[in-house]
Fold this sequence. Notes:
seven-stranded mixed β-sheet, disordered C terminus
Amino acid sequence: MTTLISVIVATYNRPDALGACLRALSVQTDRNFEVIVADDGSEEETGALVAAWSRKAAVPIKHAWHPDRGFRLAEIRNRAIRISSGAYCVFLDGDCIPRPDFVAAHRRLMEKGWFVTGNRVLLSQTLTERILRDALEPEHWGFWTWVGCRVRGEVNRLSPLFGMAFGRFRKRQPRRWTGARGSNMAFWRSDLDAIDGFDAAFTGWGREDSDIFIRMIRNGVRRKDGRFATAVLHLWHPEADRSMLSDNERRLAELRSGKRVRAQVGLSDLVEEIERNKPQFLHAQPAVS
């Protein structure tokens, strides 16, 4: 049986971008996946959007949510993992638009003992506004359209959009945790369970992804390069509040100085809470194909 993939999409009060992301996920060439929206406390408009997509999408869509108490990305990702059904979890930010072969590309790269990190193309504020205002579908744009965007300075680069096999070179830096982007990454669920998921001790923007890369590698899981295969289109947004970055840098330094593998506040801390309050965290039931 083909492995079910859980695509976990992180969002916070950005229904316009999330709508574009869900639209692109609805037309994937690989249909053996589910979507879990990991909602870090958005207002009702996001819940309504997810519910609408769950009714019309050809794949199951679920909605993990908790109250807004500041930036808690690691925690909401753990909540999404808890209600996921897939043996393999792909993490995507809700302001990123995947191209039609995104899930298929991650499936080709999945391999026991390895996690995958992908890359992205950054879109300008002007292009982002035009895409969202006019309901454009850049996931279907061809080569020359992107060349025009690059000439006009609307994207930062084109190279991630070119598919390349790379073969064994994808494994050339198996223990490197730097330079990876949390907006596009994938892990086996069993590997997430082994390290107790993301560390919810990280609050505020920054370094929660570095933390999980280090703990994965420390636990014997190696990094595979997903560039030139899984690239996504990253919509512009204002810079996040970085007031907690120094605290998170300190947490990361403490992790690096020791040998700890499991999260300080991880998946296991949510078991009793989610079972007790399941309706609160599972708003949208799987859609019927």
